[in-house]
Write a structure and sequence with these properties.
39% of the residues lie in helices and 24% in strands. It has 408 residues and is of the alpha+beta class. Strands 8-11-12-13-16-15-14 form a 7-stranded mixed β-sheet, with helices on both faces.
């Protein structure tokens, strides 16, 4: 194939923008409102990102030389009136294989900058850029024949790399602005949908909601499933104000534990949880329960609202990063589709509390479904992740670690 001639790259990139807008327009109002801006933006960015092409060094093990007939061009000066323009002669065909990565459509696109002299023939096959050199047998006799052939191949490879460099430059400019473009387009759509909801609410008109089948196909670029329904927080979920109030109560209580850790040295997870429940029940009129059955087991702390959504929390003693991530999975298994605000409380009895905090942060960051992590305090992390139990459901999780080490 002759590279960099089938399409104009500016048209290909323009079509990407059109496809992005069409994709956003096809999202239902509920899908737009039910998912965080960052989740929708990340998904579309992964889908429409164009990977620049990188060509590696030659794979010498694949280099091949075969004997065969090749077509030899006859210069007009040496041709008579009836001679052919090309003749078949005995020769060799040498093939050189260069592994590459990236979007191979770039090999077919003419960038905004290109060589007027054109580019050499290439072949693309199974992730390899292949350059072939054909020579008549008599041309390979004598000193320097091999070096001349290799030099010619290098020149052709350099020409192809130059063309890719031009294409990559245009693609990098596209990719650099892609996330912002997608984010602004979704933000605009969200604003329009919110305006519609506000008007519907003003006239007390119920909004028709479509039913969506739960079908999630794994995608190569790790595009996470999105939620297909948008439900009013006041009806389905623990409110933000209640969530903050519970967390503040927990922090205030557990901070007192840190002041007198020796008082709790003999307590195990269950004992520590029970002391917390006593405080929570004093505040929330006896609605806090422990060892409460929810879905896949019994959660440590549960404050339920009218038999619907609940604040769910787990208490753990620090036993390493792996145990922490296992605790996140365990907590997620207790959640119903209405439960989207949780907490994980970790008691640390090791002396090196600061190192434990670093390990905990790294472990949380490395969770595959983690979408957002912010350090609110050295011992407190605000997390948002995609639920494994309910694909598309975003869960807020507050992870708090408390230092219960003491000097004997």
């Amino acid at each position: 194939m002759k590279p960099f001639k089938d399409y104009e790259l500016r048209n290909v990139l323009g079509n990407q923008y059109k496809a992005i807008n069409e994709k956003i327009d096809k999202l239902s109002n509920e899908e737009v409102m039910a998912n965080y801006l960052d989740v929708l933006t990340d998904n579309l960015y992964q889908e429409f990102y164009i990977e620049p092409v990188t060509v590696e060094e030659e794979d010498f093990e694949k280099r091949s030389i075969v004997q065969g007939k090749i077509r030899k061009y006859i210069d007009p000066f040496f041709r008579t009136e009836y001679d052919k323009e090309y003749v078949d002669v005995d020769g060799i065909i040498a093939s050189f294989f260069y592994p590459y990565s990236g979007d191979d459509v770039l090999f077919k696109c003419q960038a905004s900058t290109f060589s007027l002299g054109g580019y050499p023939e290439i072949t693309l096959h199974n992730g390899y850029l292949i350059i072939k050199a054909e020579r008549a047998l008599n041309e390979m006799n004598g000193d320097g024949a091999k070096d001349r052939l290799l030099a010619a191949v290098k020149d052709e490879l350099d020409d192809v790399k130059q063309g890719l460099g031009f294409a990559n430059s245009d693609v990098n400019a596209f990719n650099n602005g892609l996330r912002r473009y997608i984010s602004e387009a979704i933000r605009t759509r969200k604003s329009k949908v919110q305006s519609f909801y506000n008007i519907a609410q003003m006239f007390e008109v119920s909004i028709e909601k479509k039913e969506y089948a739960r079908k999630h196909v794994p995608l190569e670029r790790k595009i996470v499933p999105i939620a297909h329904k948008y439900d009013s927080e006041s009806y389905y979920n623990v409110s933000d104000s209640d969530y903050k109030d519970v967390l503040d109560t927990l922090k205030h209580t557990l901070s007192t534990y840190e002041r007198t850790p020796e008082s709790y040295k003999s307590m195990q997870e269950e004992d520590l949880r029970n002391t917390l429940l006593a405080t929570l029940n004093a505040t929330y009129k006896g609605t806090a329960t422990g060892e409460t059955f929810r879905r896949k087991g019994k959660t440590d702390i549960c404050i339920e609202q009218e038999n619907r959504a609940a604040f769910v929390a787990e208490c753990k003693i620090w036993k390493g990063a792996k145990a922490l991530t296992d605790a996140v999975d365990q907590l997620d298994g207790y959640l119903t589709w209405r439960d989207c605000k949780t907490a994980l409380i970790v008691f640390v009895r090791q002396k090196d509390f600061i190192k434990v905090l670093e390990k905990a942060k790294d472990a949380l960051n490395n969770l595959e479904n983690m979408r957002f992590l912010r350090e609110l305090d050295k011992n407190e992390f605000e997390c948002v992740y995609i639920s494994n139990s309910h694909p598309g459901q975003l869960v807020k999780m507050r992870v708090m670690l408390f230092d219960l080490s003491y000097d004997e």
